Structures are given as structure tokens and as C-alpha cells.
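Pipeline run #58 for the internal structure catalog. This entry was flagged by the ingest filter as a single-chain record with no existing model, so it goes straight to prediction. Upstream metadata was stripped on purpose; only the residue string is passed forward. Reviewer on rotation: M.T. Logging verbosity set to normal.
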Amino acid sequence: MLLHLTRRAAAAALLLSSVLIAPPAAAQTAAPANALVSGFVDGHSHLFSYEAFGGRLMCGKPYDPAGIAAALTDCPDHYPNGELAWFENFTRTGSPTGTHDPVGWPSFRDWPAHDSLTHQQAYHTWVERAWRGGLRVLVNHLVANRQLCAIYPLRRYACDEMAAIRRQAQRARELQDHIDAEAGGPGLGWFRIVADPAEARRVIGAGKLAVVLGVETSEPFGCRQILGIPACTRAQIDRGLDEMRALGVRSMFVCHKYDNALCGVRFDSGTQGAVVNVGNLLGTGSFWQARTCTGPEHDNTIDPAGVLPAQIARLLPPGVSLPLYPPAPHCNTRGLTALGEYMVRGMMRRGMLVEVDHMSVKAADRTLDLLEAAGYPGVVSSHSWSDPAFLARIYALGGMVTQYGHDAEHFVAEWRRTVPLRQQYQVPGYGYGLDANGLGRLPAPRPGNAANPVTYPFTSHDGSQVLDRLRTGQRTWDVNVDGVANYGLVPDWIEDMRLLAGPDLVRDMAGGAESYLRTWENAETGAR
């Protein structure tokens, strides 16, 4: 039984249950800093979000010093049968009622699953399997959302967003140290947090995973706004950006989910949009302000009759209901503020990557104007949350686009649609933004896959290994049945897309890491 093995032996056994041929031993000599790399890039995931939102919303950890049995356990409020886990139930089924088996390790009967949003999806051995299957750059966004923290009644921490960001940065270093210890000592592990693209190339050349730290938070540096009045200053922004650089952060969002003192956001739709709009009211003093768009770009549509779960509806002030909006298409009236422009310019001076997803089209348009005027290539759309019309401007600058982790059919369709655009701008590769642990669904099983399923075992894209079905504890996953139930099934998902699109897609994806590093290098060179 794995429970009776040492932690290091257990980790090895977990991997060998699905990886039949181990990759060659990682080279210990430094690779040239300018060496071209080959492999996949995940431009957007959240390994440490269990420490966000008050620390009680997300269940399980990517590792625990006490081992897998301590790491992969459910939240206390999900016991005995998930009936009280209203947020899990609501995000999974649209209803706050439901049940699930709370037991994680070793049975994993009901989680992780591609549509279970509050359970850990990125245990470190699962990420390791993805690395062995070709992942070479992982952008881990440190994430926080003060309003979501305030809405959820259980918490270990106060709802200060920057404190949550610092906590997650520390956890990332702790995981690196843990993996180093399993490998035999400092610097020997496969998980390496990198500070610049030259270091990333050396890490990848040594056969390891380059981890880039980013930030996706709703109120960077406390820059909220209440009834249009900003709660931060230019000095706060400068201090915050300097602190983030010191923490190792190299990529940042300016706004996320709620309007803040820096920019207006791209709306959410449906019931989720209604919930987020309530959060906007509670956090800023007003609901989203929208007009009917007059140009080709637009934000997501605000549905006229979003249904609120009772746990959210009771947060509205007496007599207040969701507003009515003009006809779609909808555009947020808020764009990039003067403070937002100051932050974007500050990121350019520091050679940081500017994330334009989640910006309203008005804010994104102005941000791209600033970047174009400066000739600054450090711009990223990392998980399909920007208007598609902006992609040409991003590529023309030398920026990077990674697509949200849709199911295989939808991902392939968007890849095909955008191939001519990448060819026009000679973009070397494509990537995905899985958004693991980001309260978004992972890729579902491909409908109708019985006719051409992924056949196990299969060979990785570079031929270095053969992968069988992923097994952890007593559970075996199959991408044909389970989709991407956890991060370890990413190689299976890419194999599934290869069956649909052939080797051209895989070659394009294998150029993703190189493409990301070129954008990052050019941003550092163009810092101004």
C-alpha cells in the first residue's frame, strides 16, 4: 500500500503508475541562455488558490509536508455528504443543493473532476506528469478577490488581497523546496521558479519546468474605488509594483472581475454574471454601468434575468435588485483610468508583462494604444477573456496569446480559426491557459469520442516517454471518460486534440514555450 511507503517512494510510485518510460535524467550543466526551447506553455493557472478567498473556499493543496493523505482532503464544511457545500454545488450544477463524496485520497470517487471547481486540481505529482508530457513553461498566477472572500462565510484569513498574494508566493517557494528535497537537495528538483527569460531557457535546457509568477487580483495594491473615488495613489502603485518584482512576479492583471480604481472590467454573463455584479455593488457602491456598443468590439453580454442563489441574494440591500440594461452588445462605460495608465506605464518601465484579459474593451483598447505608442511587446491574453478583435494588435506588438482550456473540439476550432493570424505575424507557437484551480471548468470529455478515442498507452509529442492512464491511490482516470479531471491529464487532452487536428496542432503547441519566452525577452529589452 502506498500509505506505508516513504513520501519520496510514494511520489515515485504515483508517477510510474502512469509514465511507463521515464525521461532522460535532467542535465545538471547549465544550458545556454539563448538556446531555443521546445514544449508547451500554460499561460494561466493557480496552483495555490487554496490560500486565497479567506483560505476556506478551495479544498485540498498541491502538497502538504505530511504527505498526500493530508494534502488531498475535502473542506470541513463539505462533510458528511457535500450537502452544505453550496458554493461547490452552485458552481458545478447551477443549484446550491447537491451532494458528493467528500473523501479525496485514496478513493477520489467524486473529485477531482473537470467540473468540480472548489477541489484541488493541481497536486504536484499531477503537474509533474504534465511536465513529463511536454509542459515547459507554467505561469502560476497568485490570485485574490476580496469580495468573494467576504461573501463566503467561512475563512481562516482576513480578506486583504495583497496579504493573500504574499502568502501564495511563499507557498510557491515552499513547494519548490519540497520538490528539491525529494530530488536530493537544493536546485535539483524539476519545479523551478524563474526570474527572467534567460533563467527560464537554462532551466528548460536542463530538463526542468520553468515556473513564472503572475498576479490576477481584483484590487492590486488596494486600488479599489468607491462611488468612483479611488482608494490608492501613484506612490502606492510604485511601492506595489516594486514589491511584486521583489517577490518574483513578472506578469500582472490591472483589473479582474470588479471595476477598480485602475480600469473597468469585461463582464461575466449568466448566473455567474449576476453574482459578480452583486459583488461589484458591494465592493464599489454601484452595479456595472453598461451601454450598447457602437464599435466592433464588445464586452460579454449581461443577461437580463440572472438568477441569484439565496446565499447571494440576501446580501443585497433592502429594496435593491439587479438593474436593467440597454440592448446588447454591452460595453462597460469604464475604461482605463489615469491611475490605470500610470500602472501600465510602471509595468513597462519594469519590463513586466501586461495581461489584458478581464479588461473592458474600452480599457483594453486604451492599454493597447499605450503599448503601441511605446513599441512595447510585453502584452499577454492568457485565457480567452479579451475580445477576439484585439488578437491582431497583440500579435503585431509581439505579444502572446494562450487559449482557455476548452474541450478538445472547441480548442481545436479556435486554434484553426487563428492559424492565419499567427502566420501573418510569424508567431512561433500557441499555448493554453488551463485556469486550473481558478473557479473555471477544465476540459470536458470530447462528445462522440467512441469513434476515435485516445488509446492508452500513447507516446508523448517528442517521443521521450509513453504514458498510460493516470492512477492516483485507488482511482484511475481516462480522458475519454473523465476529460481533464486534474492537471495530470493535460498530456492526454493534447493527444485527444492531435487525433482531431493532426501533427500541425501539436507542432504549434510545442512552439508555445519559445513564443512566450520571446515575448518576455522583448518586454525586458523594450522596458521604458
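catalog note: Residues 265-333 form one domain.
catalog note: The first strand starts at residue 40 and ends at 45.
status: ready for reviewer M.T.
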